[in-house]
Amino acid sequence: MKKIALVSHGCAKNLVDSELMLGFLTQNGYEITLDENESDIVIVNTCSFINDAERESIHSILEMAENGKKVIVAGCLAQKHKEELKEAIPEIAGMIGPTDIEKLVDVIKGIDKGFINDVADRPDYIYPENIKRQQITVGASSYLKIADGCNYRCGYCIIPYLRGDYHSRTIEHIVDEAKLLVAKGVNEIILIAQDTTYYGVDLYGKPMLKELLERLNDIENLCWIRIMYAYPTMMTDDLLDTIAKLDKVVKYVDIPLQHSHPDMLKSMNRPAFDYRKLVQNIRQRIPNVAIRTAFIVGYPGETEEEFEHLYNFVKDMKFNKMGVFKYSREKGTPSYKLKPLVSKKIMNERYKKLMVLQQGISKEVNESFIGKTLDCIIESYTDDGMVIARSQYDAPEVDGVVYIKTDKPIVPGDIEQVKITDCYEYDLIGEIIS
């Protein structure tokens, strides 16, 4: 049986798909590797969310092809460009979309007979419960996909056209997987979907994230539960009170708001209401909460006045964590034909202005932790012996870390009490309280 290599790009949701592919291959008797030098066949699981992500995926495909590998392109890029991709890169040996994981073995079996394009015409992501994920990431934290697809049609976003409408997994399947992860030593579970707060509407007729959290909170030996990708209109008082009440659910809300000006929000096909009240309500109902958000600058038609509205909103709200994206014009999205376009120069200026503002806010937030004691999950060590940890207020990969100097023996995955002694703009420095 052939050994198969896999290269994974994109977000945490794509990472789970890569792990499902590896699990599917293992179940079908294939040996797998993450080192492309060990195999003639390489699966590149691609991302197509923005132009930069596409370029990174294409670079991998070309590199593998140049090294003489038989490349199977999987994921969003294959779905988005199912007609043009093979034409542009003739060396591609096969393609599957993000909703076609269970076609992978057929593509591999037919790889010597000629190109196979097994990308679905109408993508519809149903989580393959019969496949056991084979994790790429080994550590204290693990992503847990609770749904995929999306029923919203935000102006800038291509995802619903690549993954189909929203499909939730059952509470039982999610809880069972969470228990398996905890049995493997996972201490933190991170719930992901295109929108976690919409969870359950399609299956149960109403949002069920609250009930899911309550079930997960009962799992023995699980320490932290983190929710990513919330949607503004779904952050109900009931859900916020549940986050506040459950001891294992970290006091961290990730809610990408995208903009603050009502005209921009309408143009983006996003909920247009006063986000100040929303932020205040989150903070009021969840004491000491950390709020992460994300914004887009340079969306078509964004005026200087609308950007200033966003700037002042960020200045006033003092978000704990914030990401900023420069608008990426994507064919097939509602915003593709919108005019006028904002120049790259202005877009870059607005991006820089917001990031500089947030840098100062982040330093101010971090300084407020000095002298306080935080529970921190131990992640790894630096080459010079510094321990890298993360507080409940930081999600892996997107937020900051806590640097700890200690002589005490530390076990990755453990949660230790750490007194914060100093900080940088985005990271904290602390010492373990023995």
How many domains? The number is 3
CATH topology name of the largest domain = pyruvate-formate lyase- activating enzyme
Please give the count of helices: 14
Count all strands and give the number: 19
Overall CATH class of the largest domain: Alpha Beta
**Low-pLDDT segments, ≥5 res:** none
pLDDT averaged over residues? 93
CATH superfamily of the largest domain: tm_1862 like domain
CATH architecture of the largest domain: Alpha-Beta Horseshoe
Class from secondary-structure proportions = alpha/beta
| Shape assignment | globular
Helix content: 25-40%
Task: Give the biggest sheet.
Answer: 6 strands, parallel
β-strand amount: 15-25%
Rg over alpha carbons: 22 Å
Distance between the termini: 52 Å
* Biggest sheet strand line-up: 2-1-3-4-5-6
Describe this entry's structure for a reader:
Helices cover 33% and strands 21% of the residues. With 434 residues, the protein is α/β, with parallel strands linked by helices. The protein has 3 domains: 3-117, Rossmann fold (3-Layer(aba) Sandwich), CATH 3.40.50; 141-367, tm_1862 like domain (pyruvate-formate lyase- activating enzyme); 373-432, OB fold (Dihydrolipoamide Acetyltransferase, E2P) (Beta Barrel), CATH 2.40.50.140. The strands form 5 sheets. Strands 2-1-3-4-5-6 form a 6-stranded parallel beta sheet, with helices on both faces. Strand 5 (94-95), helix 5 (104-109) and strand 6 (116-117) form a beta-alpha-beta unit. Helix 7 runs parallel beside helix 9 (209-217), helix 9 (209-217) runs parallel beside helix 10 and helix 13 (304-317) packs parallel to helix 14.
